[in-house]
Amino acid sequence: MIIILKPGAAQNEIQTVYEAVRRYNVIVQDIKGENTSMIGLAGDTSAIPREAIERFGCVERVMKVQEAYKLAGRRFHPGDTVVECRGAKLGGGRFAVMAGPCSVETEEQILSVAQEIKRAGASFLRGGAFKPRSSPYAFQGLGLDGLELLVIARQKTGLPIVTELMSAEHLDAFARDVDVIQIGARNMQNFSLLKEVGGLKKPVLLKRGLSSTIEELLMAAEYLMAGGCTDVMLCERGIRTFETATRNTLDLSAVPVLKEKTHLPVVVDPSHATGRWALVPSMALAAVASGADGLIIEVHNSPETALCDGAQSITPHVFRDLMAKIGKVLDALKEE
Ligand code: PEP
Ligand code: MN
Question: Which atom of ligand 1 is nearest to the CA of 132?
Fold first, then answer.
């Protein structure tokens, strides 16, 4: 619902409108246009009596909004969201790269990769401690021990850490130790988990479900935002199609579509999208050219012996070369 205010309405009158709508337990947002001031209401607005609100002297009109993602959509929030985390910035023209192994394996491994990717210019360290594996017999991650190793890597490098939360059971540990909570593709529509994570009010990297539409991704972001989270980064990581040459099909047109529909930053994961390390650099560069705000890339110091996703992991050496090329694409885009 949008309440359009009369031009020049007095602040004390507007305040009475705020007080009236707050009683309905909805999210209230100021919207300042060039010539108009509005109040945006999100959440369950069905109990708000439209005619009664229109009787306030400072109210010009009340409009129902059909859009399902009021908080994630651009209508109420035209400017880009910039996510800030321990000095790193992503969104609104600030490009950033998240990199690291699929899973945290040992202290030596995570420290070596963290130092390498930092030197190459990455701004966030990724690494899974809880892994959503297709087979129950595959390596499931180090769990809380893995989180501890990520914290050590952060202490040594200063890089904020991004890692996946799979269960509300670990909410407290993540609230304490993790900078960016990753919601994996398989949990994108785990609505009870999204509600719990939204309440932590921490930055979230929300990955697109394997067979989810862009609309469904935005609705999942809306769950996080309705819970109180403002810093949601959306991640295109490839979707299921009939094609089997790559692990998934990277839907790069999702980037400009999302940029049109939402103010939230868009991150692309060329590693899970392709499943093949040799395809990662070209798809990463294409993602930058498509207007992505960031990338998340799997980097391993020894891909052949990796416990998870070695085939799609690039070495620190390949990562360094890629970072240099990313810089060139970004420069070319600035020259436009
Ligand atoms: C990951 O990032 O390691 C991961 C499991 O990703 P996704 O949820 O996109 O498959
Ligand atoms: Mn992986």
Answer: 5
